[in-house]
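Lay summary. Proteins are chains of building blocks that fold into shapes, and those shapes determine what they do. In this project we predict the shape from the chain. Here is one chain we studied, written as its sequence of building blocks.
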Amino acid sequence: MVVQLGGEPIMPIRVGFVGVGGIARRHQRYISAMEDVEIAAHCDLIPDRVDAAVFEFGGEGYLDFDEMLSKEKLDALYICVPPYAHGEVEIKAARAGIHMFIEKPVALSLEVAERIAEEIERSGVICSVGYQLRYHKLIPRIQSELSSGPILLFCGRYYCPFPPGGKPWWHRKSMSGGQTVEQTTHIIDLARYLVGEITEVYAYAAMRYYKPTPMNDVEDVTASIFKFENGAYGTLTSTTVMSSGWHIEVDIIVPHRRIELIGDTLRIRDGSIEEVKVEEDWQGEVDRAFIEAVRTGDASLIRSSYRDAMKTLAVTLAINESAEKGEVVKVKL
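And here is the predicted shape, written in a compact code that computers can read:
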């Protein structure tokens, strides 16, 4: 129990986790440092993961979500499951009146996502989706630079190594959606947040380096172009053939100025170069915003709602469809 300075006790926000792999552990480390939060329960299909999470953060461990839901009184639930597993967990949590933080992508189809969205809206619970780039410390400065407009061009890049074999679901497109849906979605979401809605796409994607096998059919290179509703154009390239490191980069062009975001460094080029760096760790801001929204009931603190995240999903699915069909695809949402 946490006690306020005025002497009035407040109960901590009780948080559960479904899926306690790598991304969940990062969220757990951030929220475990918050005074008014208790990590009460962990659920995963892999017992060793559950045991490790309980050992590090306390709380109860479960291998069955329904059992956790019936035994634990939770205020909030982090849903950190693979893309193919979204659906019933969210629906059951919404019906139980539990606020949710859902890791991206929110689903592998708009049909599943729509079912979830309807339950969230029916229940009135707060829901945040894990597009943490919206909370980057440099975003306000970028938005200020873009306000002079018009925005002409957005160029994004997402280059990383092939995910390790410990994630067999990632290598199956039917389970992960491929790199565009599962990883590059962060860049697409940032493009929407900074520039505007994307209306149509054209894409190429192929396995140019890795060989297809029954256990791996995810393209290792993708290139796409797209058009924004406001008339701006965009390009996006991604690959999984790097030997190490994640290279997440964005260039935005407005008249006489280039705005370049590479990791935690912003460069503004307009004949001279201004460089701004962020030293502090900002990636927990998405967690702080969610917990504060749950604590206060103020959903306006959330920068990526479920419905909004569905629009990002729609763009990623359109890119996959375009690459498969070899034609321009209109974004369907």
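What the prediction tells us: The two ends are 44 Å apart (CA to CA).
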